[in-house]
Design brief:
The complex is a heterodimer. Chain A is built from six helices and seven strands, in the order αβααβββαβαββα. By secondary structure, chain A is of the alpha+beta class. In chain A, α1 runs antiparallel to α4. Chain B has a two-stranded antiparallel sheet with strand order 1-2. A two-stranded antiparallel sheet of chain B has the order 3-4. The chains are: A alpha+beta, B mainly alpha. At the A-B interface, α1, α3, α4, α5 and β6 of A face α2, α16 and α20 of B. Bound molecules: coenzyme A (COA). Coenzyme A binds next to β4, α4, β5 and α5 of chain A. Chain B: It holds the Pfam family Mak10.
């Protein structure tokens, strides 16, 4: 585990021994309502349950949660996916991240993101990307401290008309040179979901 | 042809048992995912009975339909208020919100459009027949005329926007939810409605004069606006449409306080009938002040765009205009960009004697050249195809071949220049790939041209590999803009500035080199008497090349100086550097260089070389002893290189100034050109002050990592996107430390 994650281990433990765990598919009933509630607090429009299931069903092992050990309450969560992108890279994507307001600024999100990055790196991800509103200082700071760079500015990316930055972290050398693999098998895998809406990392022109 | 057959008898299979058996294989609550269920579908999914997603969900006591009666009489002040509310919604739509959250929330608009009227006469606030006492009076009739015109304005706007390249939802929402915005009904019908309304209001007895004039101003404005938006306006008259609108704007603003808004005439309930598959979304609240600003901006931007018509037929003038227009602050709205795009791509604009790409080529690499001599195109091929073609004919055919090949990349380049600022940068990173391929092809045509030219014995008259040179020059110009836009859009973190300015400097130096080859060749032709220096074409050409050279070198030197300064700040640990446990410098370099890695040339420097250049004193956190020594010695290369680069840049800027906007071929965008130039000069001056202050504040610190410190406070200003041109040149501020 990374230096930062260890740092924040300490911070977290001094603030009440949070428990960090990986999501599991058969715990949907236990955790999904809380995850939805936590995430949707910061959304102008809620995601349907299928959005959560889309990620958690396929990449539940890339979802990490911070729990209060006494009450089992969900304090923070990160939700990701990892698949071959149409550019040819094996791309991790951080889809959702949130920490309870009362627990912010203690390194909880940092720790969750570190766990997710470590998990994706262990699965040989080439890169990790995400979008965040240009005005979301806390989130930009968090990711940039870990090594993400801003790669693009996305005009009116969100439904509410706000502009976003695409942040990117390369994990492997040669990622920029990868090209779509047109060999057999690759087609179904890296299929570009042409109809993706602006959210979750698909754009008309990457 | 499909045979019309009787539908087959339905066959019934009982699958109950199969289904039950299959279900037994699943746990309760276990998910099953179909391979075809995509992220897109999951995002589009709605949950029934969730009030935030299900637009049909009714809270206890809530009604499905609104109960606003559009036939209720309104006060004159309310008429003014509603007109202004509609204006606010219209402008909100112009900034990118959908009609369903803006204009289409108006009960009046909705009643006119739905159920769909067959004729304009049917487009009333009611359908069918109504008792006489319910018939709308003069005020409601005026509101109807105004609404009809607003709707027609939307129709015109959509036509113009969809006629050009734009991005749905990002730039603009053209969705009309199956409402037909009077597409078939011509302009004069709406004008008549507005005229009739104006007449009626003029003769309406029970109106106070100020309210009367407020209403008439708005109707008059709507007339002028509608005329200006008409997509069939002839190019030559475009500029006459905007000034009358401007004259009505101030009175609208002044009389706005007279109006009395009627919020109840707007409701989100209409959304239920627009699209059932979209969650209910709030009405966009746009203040009158903001809406008015946007309206003003659209008018000024469109009026500015009409100047394009009067530009000299020179593609570089076009390019300068487009670049300046894209850089206007605040950024032009989508409609205004489409408006300019329509002028640019109008057949009358493109119909120049010589094709625009060819003019562009000629203006850089073939001035007064036998290769592009008009007479080459007058030659006809020999009757007998077995006979050799004359060399001049061969030249014209080769040039035509190249121009045809270049037309798509050229078009892509102009299309990119018409996008919103964020897209412009990203699209340009794709356009350069097309130009890179073009350059390879240019090389092949160049070889043929070289051969013909040798055959003709006019080698010294023709720039060698001219087409490659031209393509490369344009590509390098784009790469420079991509980096500059990166600064402007706050893409780079402060600890990347040194590296990015360094890259910019390398690219600009390549372009300067290309230009010096061009100008040397030109000088040779003058020296050997091939060119008459007093020829007006030559005068113009010489000034343009001089201007380009000065600009490229100024960029090269200024960015080199900036790179050096930020390198020093990195050694002094005065730039915030994140810890970045998951990343390495090499990986970040690769990410940053990604858009340019495919280019050949210019080849991206290998990381080791890049690092050696940017870390001349070893790692930033542990510089070698030479760093302190150089810092403390005002005559060391560290300082003199920086000062010389800056001095050089200033000299080149003076050279640019001498040639002026005309030399830069930006005479049609002179104000913007001057402003950009001023920004450059100011940055250079400020930068000189920074170097001097820093240099004077260095002090030896034994035992510290770098061995030195500066006794001043250094701050790197935050970029406020969309404010000023010089935000591409981020000059740190140096001030006295508070004791
Ligand atoms: C973004 C978010 C997940 C961060 O959670 P957190 O647990 O507070 O984050 P951490 O404590 O690990 O780190 C956040 C960093 O941002 C800083 N920060 C927090 N709020 C800040 C603010 N308003 N302005 C500037 N910096 C801020 C913190 O100080 C910390 O940096 P530091 O350690 O250098 O001081 C949390 O704010 C949140 O849930 N926001 C709403 C949802 C959201 O925006 N998600 C991200 C969408 S991509």
């Amino acid at each position: 585990m990374s230096a930062i994650a260890n740092d924040s281990d300490k911070q977290a433990s001094s603030s009440g021994e949070l428990q960090y765990i990986q999501y599991e598919g058969d715990k949907e009933e236990t955790y999904l309502p809380a995850i939805r509630q936590l995430i949707s607090k910061d959304l102008s429009e809620p995601y349907s349950i299928y959005v959560y299931r889309y990620f958690l069903y396929q990449w539940g092992d890339l979802c990490f949660m911070a729990l209060d050990p006494l009450t089992n309450a969900l304090i923070g969560v990160v939700v990701c996916k990892l698949e071959t992108h149409r550019s040819g890279t094996f791309r991790g994507y951080i889809a959702m991240l949130a920490v309870q307001e009362s627990h912010r600024g203690k390194g909880i999100a940092t720790k969750l993101v570190c766990m997710a990055i470590d998990a994706m790196a262990a699965r040989q991800a080439d890169e990790i990307v995400l979008e965040t509103e240009v005005t979301n200082t806390a989130s930009m700071k968090l990711y940039e401290r870990l090594g993400f760079l801003r790669s693009k500015r996305l005009h009116r990316y969100y439904l509410n008309g706000n502009t976003a930055f695409r942040l990117v972290l390369y994990l492997k050398a040669g990622t920029a040179l990868k090209r779509p693999d047109m060999g057999d098998g690759a087609m179904g895998y890296g299929r570009y979901e042409g109809g993706d809406n602006a959210m979750f990392g698909a754009e008309a022109i990457a | 042809m499909q045979q019309s057959t009787r539908p087959p008898e339905p066959k019934v299979h009982d699958i109950t048992e199969k289904f039950t058996r299959a279900c037994n294989a699943l746990e309760v609550g276990q998910l099953v995912k179909d391979d075809l269920f995509t992220l897109f579908e999951s995002i589009g999914a709605l949950e029934i009975m969730d009030s935030k997603m299900d637009s049909g969900f009714l809270k206890p006591g809530e009604t499905l339909e609104h109960d606003y009666d559009a036939l209720n009489s309104i006060l004159p002040e309310e008429l003014v208020g509603i007109m202004d509310q509609l204006l606010c919604h219209e402008m909100a739509w112009h900034t990118g919100y959908p009609l369903s959250q803006t204009l289409f929330t108006s009960v009046y608009i909705d009643n006119l459009l739905w159920p769909e009227p067959k004729t304009l006469a049917q487009a009333q606030f009611y359908r069918g027949s109504i008792p006489d006492e319910r018939r709308p009076g003069v005020l409601l009739e005026a509101l109807r005329a105004y609404c009809l015109a607003v709707i027609k304005c939307c129709d015109y706007v959509i036509a113009k926007v969809t006629g050009r390249d734009y991005f749905e939802e990002e730039d603009f929402c053209t969705h009309t939810y199956n409402r037909v915005l009077f597409v078939q009904i011509p302009l004069d019908v709406f004008m008549r409605e507005l005229d009739a309304a104006i007449e009626n209001i003029e003769s309406e007895p029970d109106l106070s004069e100020d309210v009367r004039s407020a209403i008439i101003t708005r109707l008059q404005f709507r007339k002028d606006f509608l005329i200006a938006l008409d997509p069939d306006c002839p190019l030559s008259q475009l500029e006459s449409y905007w000034p009358p609108i401007r004259s009505n704007l101030q009175p609208i603003k002044d009389t706005q306080p007279l109006g009395k808004p009627v919020p109840s005439s707007f409701t989100t309930k209409i959304q239920r009938r627009l699209a059932s598959t979209v969650p209910p979304r709030p009405i966009v609240e746009f203040e009158f002040k903001d809406a008015f600003e946007k309206l003003q901006q659209i008018c000024t931007d469109c009026e500015q765009a009409t100047n394009f018509v009067d530009l000299p037929s020179d593609p570089i003038e076009f390019q300068s205009f487009l670049w300046a227009y894209a850089g206007r602050k605040p950024a032009p709205l989508t409609y205004a960009r489409s408006y300019l795009g329509t002028i640019l791509f109008h057949p009358e604009t493109l119909n120049t004697g010589m094709s625009l790409p060819l003019l562009d080529v000629k203006g850089l690499v073939y001035p007064l050249s036998p290769v592009t001599d008009q007479s080459n195109w007058a030659l006809s091929p020999p009757r007998n195809p077995l006979m050799p073609k004359s060399p001049r004919l061969q030249l014209s055919l080769l040039v035509d071949e190249f121009i045809e090949r270049a037309s798509q990349p050229y078009l892509d380049f102009w299309t990119a220049l018409g996008q919103n600022r964020c897209r412009l940068r990203r699209m340009m990173t794709h356009v350069i790939i097309g130009w890179d391929n073009l350059q390879a092809d240019a090389g092949i045509v160049d070889e043929d041209i070289n051969r013909v030219v040798d055959e003709m014995g006019i080698r010294e008259q023709v720039l060698h590999d001219a087409l490659t040179t031209w393509t490369y020059h344009k590509k390098l110009w784009m790469v420079e803009r991509i980096v500059l836009l990166g600064f402007e859009q706050d893409i780079y973190l402060p600890d990347e500035y040194a590296s990015m300015y360094n890259f910019l400097s390398i690219i600009a130096s390549r372009r300067a080199l290309v230009l010096s080859r061009i100008s040397e060749h030109h000088a040779q032709r003058i020296a050997s008497g091939i060119i008459d220096t007093s020829d007006p074409e030559n005068v113009e050409y010489a000034s343009h090349i001089e201007s380009l050279q000065c600009e490229a070198t100024a960029l090269q030197d200024l960015s080199a100086a900036m790179a050096k300064l930020y390198t020093v700040l990195l050694y002094l640990r005065l730039v915030p550097v994140p810890k970045r446990p998951f990343s390495t410098e090499e990986l970040r370099y690769e990410l940053r260089m990604k858009p340019f890695l495919a280019l050949q040339p210019p080849e991206v420097e290998p990381f080791a070389q890049h690092q050696a250049l940017l870390q001349p004193f070893g790692p930033y956190e542990r510089p070698n002893a030479a760093f302190a020594a150089s810092m403390l010695d005002p005559k060391s290369g560290l300082w003199t290189d920086m000062e010389a680069a800056l001095q050089n840049a200033k000299g080149r800027l003076q050279g640019m100034k001498k040639q002026g906007a005309a030399g830069a071929k930006a005479s049609g965008a002179e104000t913007a050109w001057k402003e950009e130039f001023k920004g450059l000069v100011e940055s250079a001056v400020l930068f000189g002050v920074v170097i001097a202050r820093l240099k004077g504040a260095v002090r030896k610190v034994e035992g510290s990592e770098s061995g030195v410190a500066v006794d001043v406070k250094v701050e790197i200003p935050a970029i406020v996107v969309g404010t000023k041109c010089s935000d591409r040149w981020i000059v740190p501020t140096v001030s006295q430390k508070l004791k």
